[in-house]
Batch of 4 targets.
Target 1
Amino acid sequence: MSLPRKGLMQAPEPIPLPDYQRPDRMPSFPAWLASRVASINDVVQPDQITGKHRPAPTLPRSLTFNEAERAMIEDHVLELAAACSRTPARDPEAEGEIVLVLTKMQLALMAAKQNEAGVEARGEAYLAALDDLPPWAVQAAMHAWHRGEAGNDERGRPWDYNWQPSPAALRRVAVGKLCRVTTRADTLRKLLRAEPLIDYSEEHRQEMLQRLSKLMRETFGIPLVGKDGSSRTVGVAPAEGVNCGTEPRHNPA
């Protein structure tokens, strides 16, 4: 068996795709990606181009992605986006798949008696409610409905699983399944936007503290609390006559 040549980048562990029939059971990220998800943090820091301070997602420099990791995340996000965007409004075949799900639902669950026109109108209502959702989300919603695990209605009451869901109810459950996947994709997109966290040196922090202390003394006559726990900034003399509540005010004669 040949060993990998020194200097070659090892491929990261693959990111598993979700089970679209059961999106509530989202697979875990591989360790190299989970550590980044746990470490991302929104921080106000200067833009690397303009220098203007603004909030931005950041990662410690030691956790920034290499080319192989970034490419794998980008490909995974594209796969999730493709799965979420395959709807009847964009793909005619998707409508046929949803119709099949609805047909099975009508055969399996009770509904109020309707004539042929009523059945047709009800079918149109379902398609209107679901035309911007992928078939797998509708299928996952019906899977949860059959198991009695579709959650509660908008008033917090459990659904009556003995009957067919209304078009709005089925949409509500299906959107919840879709959001499980879109939330995962959004998390990864945020990771891809993350910047290296700017870690200032101790000397820089001390310099900024001194400048801030000077500004506060000149503006308000109040120094910052120093590291020694006193009311004075380390290395900066306190303003004359300042009272922080621990000593009597000095009254010049």
Target 2
Amino acid sequence: MNPSQKRKAVEEALMPFIHGKTLANALILWDEKYAHKPTFALQHYLRELCSDLEIAHMRSRMLQALVSAFSSLQDDRQSRTPTSYSPRSITPATHANKTTSSPILLMFMDLVEQLIDAPGGDASTRIRLYVLENLEKIPLLTQERWAFQGWLNQMTPLTGTTPNINTMQQVINLAYVGLCEYLGPIRADQFLQNTVSEVQKMHPTTNVNGLL
């Protein structure tokens, strides 16, 4: 994606949320500080943009819109590339059928999703955003990062990719740290214990402790 395509994607993604001078300032911020940064720096952009309390409550939805817009651009670019030019092309993780995932990956997905969703309400939103913002600390290939972001934004399943155990453990740890951050360590431990028990029942043939 070139800078003009990225800028257009940012503008279209933000238009449902902000307009007029606020949108203009958002685009200026993008042009000056983020236009030439990797696309997974979107969280940094939104963190700075949403320092204004008037739009802070829309941050999670704005992030979903931005990730969706950038993913659409990437998919469009891939669809225009002749297959003969990319003999090693890989099916994007976000387009794969869930049945193609390994048992341990499915268990990982259930564990993380339940850890994030367990508190409910605003706490779950904050924890999900915490995991997304800290995902960049985990070394991932660009395609893998987009797959994780799409999944964590509840837009697409995390399938067709094979993250290693270490990567899965790091994501689980982010979810747990998010629980501790917003609920305190005692409640976080309770949620973790209950979630591990429930996920183990859902996947009786795979040992959930192998992910912890």
Target 3
Amino acid sequence: MTTLTINCRFPHDGVLERHDPDQPLILRRHPHNQRISNAELTVDNLTLASKKRRRTQSLVLRGTVTGPLGTVDSILKLDLTGEHREAMLKGLEVYNSKAGSLQSDVLPLLYGCFEAEVGSTVVTCLAMEYCGEPVKDLLSAPHSFRQDLLLAVLDFHKLGKTHGDLYEDNILDCDGHPVLIDLKFAEDHKCVINMKIVTGAIAPTVEEYGCPELYELILEQLGVWKSATIGFCSQMFRKDGITCPEDLTKNMPAHFNEERQEIEKQAILVFEEILEERRLTYGTEQVLPGQRRVDYVRGAHIA
């Protein structure tokens, strides 16, 4: 049976109170490792992972793993209490599914899930390759990174899974390439996409777009679409209801009257921006009530 042997002390005291820190901790391969080859692995040089990598209920460590492929920089995610074992095994299930074929591309390469009994506690460990640090700010990430992220999530969906927890801490920047981690909320999924993503277009509804997870990523995390509403002079307007600049100013609160001339100039500029968004969204500046978008095509790329 494959084992994972941790030869070094844990980075801080009290991690495993019932384990002699001067003795190696030997964990055995979990029987559900369907896609993982048999190999003896050893771990050395453990340190605490970065703070962003440690925003989790499990202990996340960085170290080196030595096996058939040599010595590689790696991440160990450990449950030391048994409270989060099911969540970690849920992640293993994803690797055992068709989505496991995305390892070393969309997902980190998983070396395996290992367990050991320490006293009355079952310690569970997921060992995987190190693929960089969590992205700091998706909105300011390069266009190519955001494009690749959408394609990565789409590839994940095509193989029948949603991630379930797509936010910056779970998206790694691996030399400019996005990698998804923390799969405990992944669910079976049949992805439906009804339209091409056009940068700067007015945001559709989730029903118009199709896939809820991609919709939330595009709208909330990437800021690709423009809002369907706009605020002007302390009022909110739906953009599809604005037919001329005067629609923005005709019911303007009285306390803005002294600045009316300047506000009317601003209204013209805002209306021109709305027209440009309509051109991107519908292919025309004139939008009739209930008109559908002209760009209903399959795809998940940013134009």
Target 4
Amino acid sequence: MKSALRSVPPLTSRPRTVIAAGPFLAVIVAFAGIYTAVSSRLPDPLATHFGFGGRADGFTSVHSFLTGSLALFLLFGAVVGLLLQLRPEAPEVPWVIAGGYATASATGYAVCVTLLSNADVADVSAVRVPQWELFLSLVVALCAGALGRLLAGAAPAAPRRPRGAVSRLDLPAAATAGWSRTISSPPLAVLGGLLLAAGLLVGLLADWIAAAGLLFGAAVSLPLASLRVTVDRRGLTLAPALLSARCRFRRIPLDRIEEA
């Protein structure tokens, strides 16, 4: 009797593209639903930019706000989709999807909060956004990013050399050798730039408090986009290439390394 259990096939580029598009479609639907519910109670112009104290200090017409928000969703979704199409088998693809989820959720949260904050106000200059929205936007972005990483599945496995296939250096007894290489990830760099651009746009056009989640994601992604791997007498060191050599992620002592 043949077993009915079968291994789960890895995700292909098409399902990953559908998964990556999900959060952008969801926030567009949520944004449209909230606008439909409160459109009759919105002033024109809207309070769309808020200072660090939560006080409104920038205003935009309803039409411009809707158009700009929709353009942001489509732009960010198109960039994530393009990255997946250019390098569908790259090991960074699951993290690009996770970044897309975080970007979509943080941007969608900011514009939806802006609409709800403007509903039923007589004076738009009196609109306030409380400080706890900052922490909530961070939580939303992190949870959405974690969900995206989970749905993206495992990254494609890189081919591994068999043990002993690497030739050893023939060095004299008193000589030492070192090895260093910089490894860059264009998708992760683009993702970090996307998060940075989204954070700046949301901060300039809407609220710096709501943009904090996007800027935090950029601060995490950009240092990871280029890593320097060094093997010397101290062991193996992994450090971000864009930061100081003292800012290392990990160091493995030389006596724990069997082959490099």
